[in-house]
Each structure stands twice: as C-alpha cells, then as structure tokens.
Amino acid sequence: MRTRISSDLKAAMKAGEKDKVAVLRLINAAIQSAEIEAKGAIDEAGILAVMTKMVKQRRDSIQQYTDGGRPDLAGKEQAEITIIEQYLPTQMDEAAVAAAITAVIAETGAAGPKDMGKVMGALKAKYAGQMDFQKASAAVKAALTG
C-alpha cells in the first residue's frame, strides 16, 4: 500500500495534479504520525485504520460545512474522500454487513450483550476498512439483544 501511495504521489506531481498531491501528502503524514504514536512501523491493517479515520473526519466536516452553508468547502472535503477511498477496500453493502455480523456471532458463540466486544473485535480483525464500524456496532447490539 505504501509503495502504491508513493508511486501515485510521484505520478500526480509529474502530472501537475495539485489536489491529488495534497491529499496523498496528507495520507503519508497521517501514516507517519500513526507510526510515531505506535513507536514503529504499522502494518496494512494499521494503514487502513488511518485512512478510514481520515474518511470519517472528512464526512464529519462535510456535515458541518453543509449545516454552516459552505457547499464549496463540503465539495473540497468530498473530493478528498474520493481520492482516499481509491486506496481503501470496497465498502460492504448493508446485506453483506448483516451476513458478516451473523457469521461472526456464530463463530464466536456470542450469546448476549456482554459478548459485544468479542464480536466487534472479530469484525474489526476480518473486515478492516470494509465497513462502517459505528453502524456495525448498532447492528451487533440489536442482534445480540434480540
């Protein structure tokens, strides 16, 4: 993933794509920051987590800009999301998320709300970057409480 980001950054610089260069530099900076925090190199799952967090931050910003009547800034954030998402795995649709939750509940033998942490941990390990874990958390809670 790192090599793809680096080569895409070089290509964007040569092509004069200023917006893409800026976003790729932001991605590199976020990865480096995460590595400093972790006191060492992070793996692919760590990189996916960093990039997923970046997308979430931008979606929050879009909401704030939209509420504040700044569609120009919201559009800029959306353009950044589009670039970041090129490096993330395809997001699962609702049916796939529901099927994954059902499968993980069966695998872990979760029986009630007290097992929610175990289920969420397994989902995050298997599906990093592929689903919105905030929405998945609500679905797991609903499934475990019956």
Task: Summarize the SSE layout with pairings.
Blueprint: H1 2-15, H2 18-38, H3 44-67, H4 71-85, H5 94-108, H6 116-126, H7 133-145
What would you say about this model in short?
The protein is an all-alpha fold. The protein has two domains: 2-85, Hypothetical Protein Yqey, Chain: A, domain1, CATH 1.10.1510; 94-145, Arc Repressor Mutant, subunit A, CATH 1.10.10.410. It has seven helices and no strands.
Which terms summarize this structure?
146 residues, Arc Repressor Mutant, subunit A, globular, 0% strand, Hypothetical Protein Yqey, Chain: A, domain1, single chain, mainly alpha, 2 domains
Written description of the protein model:
The protein is mainly α and 146 residues long. The protein folds into 2 domains: 2-85, Hypothetical Protein Yqey, Chain: A, domain1 (Orthogonal Bundle); 94-145, Arc Repressor Mutant, subunit A, CATH 1.10.10. 77% of the residues lie in helices and 0% in strands. It is globular and about 55 Å long.
